[in-house]
User: Fold these one by one.
Assistant:
Number 1:
Amino acid sequence: MTGRVADRLTALGLELPQVAAPVAAYVPAVRTGNLIHTSGQLPFVGGELPLTGKVGAQVSAETAQELAATCALNAVAAVAALLDGDLDRVVRIVKVVGFVASDPSFTGQPGVINGASTLLGEIFGEAGVHARSAVGVAVLPLDSPVELEIVAEIAD
């Protein structure tokens, strides 16, 4: 992978991971027209979840924010896979939807998903600024603390 976005990843000390294998009947990302929609990305590192549990109980908000950034990096990898690695074709990250497995008393979902939003801004610059939802849920697949999906607009 070469280009402007690849240079930013290198400057940030990041490397795109292998795209996580689906845990059910779906694909990691789909292109329709000039949009790529990712499936929900968990914070897999080396094929495994580094932590499980509810944010605000077993997982701190700060740790969950780091996990959200990992989800974002995994989502970028899924986008890159459909673009043969050419992330310079990303015109804009249009939308981010973040899910936070939350203890019933936890209300800091937006702060957790900031981990993903901040990283996308660092990777893509102005093109990484997006619309967003941050949703608290009772449980996520594999008891993951966070899950993230993105929609990216791409140039032909």
Number 2:
Amino acid sequence: MRKEYTKVKRIESSIIEIENVADVTYNAVVSVHALGMDFVGQVVKIDDETISIEVFGNTQDFSLDDIVISFEEKPLAIPLNEKILGRTFDGLARPIDNGGEIYSEKNYSVEGEPLNPVAREYPRDFIQTGISAIDTLTTLIRGQKLPIFSGYGLSHNQIAAQIVRQAKLKTDEDFAFVFAAMGIKKDEAMFFEDAFNKAGVRDKVVMYQNLADSPIMERLIAPKCALTAAEYLAYEKGYHVLVIITDMTSYSEALREVSSIRQEVPSRKGYPGYLYSDLATLYERAGMIRDVDGSVTLIPILTMPNDDITHPVPDLTGYITEGQIVIDRSLYNKGIYPPINVLPSLSRLMKDGIGEGYTRADHEDLMNQIYESYSHVGEVRNIAQIVGEDDLSDIDKKYLEFGDEFEKRFLSQQPTENRELEESLDLGWEILKILPRTELHRVSPENLDKFIGN
């Protein structure tokens, strides 16, 4: 029989402190009975004989005299089987879709299983998203972690839903999808539900939702539950799993709030000093394991406060992940969808996942040339604002034409438009023909002759 404790030292927000407790481990699950209901908590701090417990629920009406606490000798674990596909859960992996409970012989720790880094396999397989700016210039690779950096009010949700609808491997193998939302509004959750249903992929999607009015502590567990489900589907059932998590800024702000309640020393902008390592424990769960058929590919979405890419959350995320896709407000205001700014965007793994045998032999040449030419467009536009368009050289006017056509025809596409990679590559070469051949410095003579001509 488990020992029960009733003498609580302090309650502050969702943190309960209790004294004179022995043989309790960090991250252990805690059962909290209060207000006639049962709540789940977790040990988050052990200081001599004082134990701090984080309760995943609303504790504002708790009384010091109305709490019964008992500890379990294990971390938080959730039941998993293949029937989770098509289901919707809250941030603690409890069903909220009236589909019944999930039963399994084994419960899986939300902290994940230890993974030997030597067992990891280097990602190389191209994932086609049907979005030209991603497939051609910021290529997504199976097993990669590639975040979307966005801003409040931009179209990152539509882009994420489009990727789920259209993502496919070169081998035409299907994906299973795991979607986790933290701190989103109900209408955003309904948008994703509706998008998945209309695309006919709802039966392949597992959803974990922590809404804006849900307990903030659930926000810290939701992505762990989602990644645990992804690891189960990938490494035990052999699925290729694409995980989308939104919004990592909401997660980080919840972490900051909890850190403040714990009275920890703050770091940049009030975030805890361990924000980097905490984010890394989530992001590094993506990948591939040697001799295992499945894989976990991760696309975390984060909204940058004031569109500031140097903010701690995007800044640290960029160090941990393998690139980023940057959503640009100026392109969004021009009516371009998807408003992906390709210049600050990059995919660090694409160099080993494109070219002969992976995508197409000319892919790298095209990518390098578009980056060079489009970066020069920005310089010419700045000069045009000073001296006027009429006083530009003929070549500079060609760059302006190239920039406009690139944004209108290559970057811009319909939210339902699914472009094949070959179509995107051919379109890129067609737009490069606007520039004189002498301006194409990053293309081999063979590809110049083949795609540009004399």
